[in-house]
Amino acid sequence: MREERITARKNPLLQQVKRLLTSRREREEAGLFVGDGTKLLKEAVTYWPGLETVILSDGVEIPVPEQVRLVRVPEEVMASVSPMQSPQGALFVCRLPEKTDWNPCSGMLLLDGIQDPGNLGTILRTADALDIPVALLEGCADPFGHKAVRASMGAVFRMPVPQVSWEEAKRTLAARQIPVAVTALSDTAVDIRRADLTGMAVVIGSEGRGVRQEILDGAARKLIIPMNPHCESLNAAAASAIVMWQMKQ
After folding, report:
1. 16, 68, 135, 198: which has the fewest Cβ within 10 Å?
2. What would the pLDDT profile of 3-47 be if each residue is shown by its tens digit?
3. What are phi and psi of 174, to 5 degrees?
């Protein structure tokens, strides 16, 4: 494989990488996203057919497919582009997945307005480990932003992450007779340890406001995770992990 070498920080490829790292709009318009780190690159090589360009620092050696563009840069140039304080010496550009029809099923998780990319990536990582399908409703962070990709530990390369409006989700779930459960701080909520979630889709709400009222109002079941009274709530990723574990029981 022939390597290209770039030494100028204002090279068009590196400038595009910077824009892709910082702008969801840029990612969507270009149909591309960026990952960083050697371990994630190995995951992308193994699982992601849309790997297009790999940028490596001098001295970093990772095998990449023959058809992938390989660019070599000095360490100081990598440091000027990488979003990490201590770059691992690998950045890579991938095509975004093509949009496909949403295929809802029972036993899946719906995320409503999860805005923190670290939380989103961690939820996807757990869902991948437990084999739980996930769909994103409105207001979620970009699953292909570099922070979410990194927190997912490569889960975004191994599982579909459809994005769908609540209106469409509600309609298709009802058509397939899949009831919706939600996590909620409510007097009518059922202790999740005693809840049978077989055949249901479960909605996890945003870090700040929880599940939207319109989703709460139409839910077939409300769930609560018991905790010490002096604790107000759980981190969204932690709550999702508990819910997904119970969904597997």
Report:
1. 198
2. 899 999 999 999 999 999 999 999 999 999 999 999 999 999 999
3. -65, -40
Portion of the chain with pLDDT greater than 70, in percent: 98
Full-model pTM? 0.92
The answer for residues whose C-beta is within 8 angstroms of residue 142's C-beta and 6 or more apart is: 24, 27, 117, 148
Question: 């699953």: which residue's tokens?
Answer: 143
The answer to whether 137 touches 113, Cβ cutoff 8 Å, is: yes
Contact by Cβ (8 Å): 65, 105:
no
Three-class secondary structure of residue 190 per DSSP: strand
In tens, the pLDDT along 95-130 reads 999 887 788 988 999 999 999 999 999 999 999 999
DSSP letters spanning 111-152? E-S---HHHHHHHHHHHHHHT--EEE-TTPPPTTSHHHHHHT
Is 191 strand, coil or helix? strand
Instruction: Give the total residue count for the chain.
Output: 249
pLDDT of amino acid 127: 97
Ranges of beta strands (E only) in the chain are 4-5, 32-36, 51-57, 69-73, 90-95, 109-111, 134-136, 180-183, 190-191, 201-204, 221-224
In the block, tokens 């939380």 appear at: 119
Say how far apart CA 27 and CA 249 lie, in whole Å.
38
Contact status, residue 114 vs residue 79, Cβ threshold 8 Å = no
Report yes or no: 210 and 235 within 8 Å, Cβ to Cβ.
no
In angstroms, rounded to a whole number, what is the distance separating the alpha carbons of residues 249 and 240?
Answer: 15
Q: What percentage of residues in the chain have a pLDDT greater than 90?
A: 71
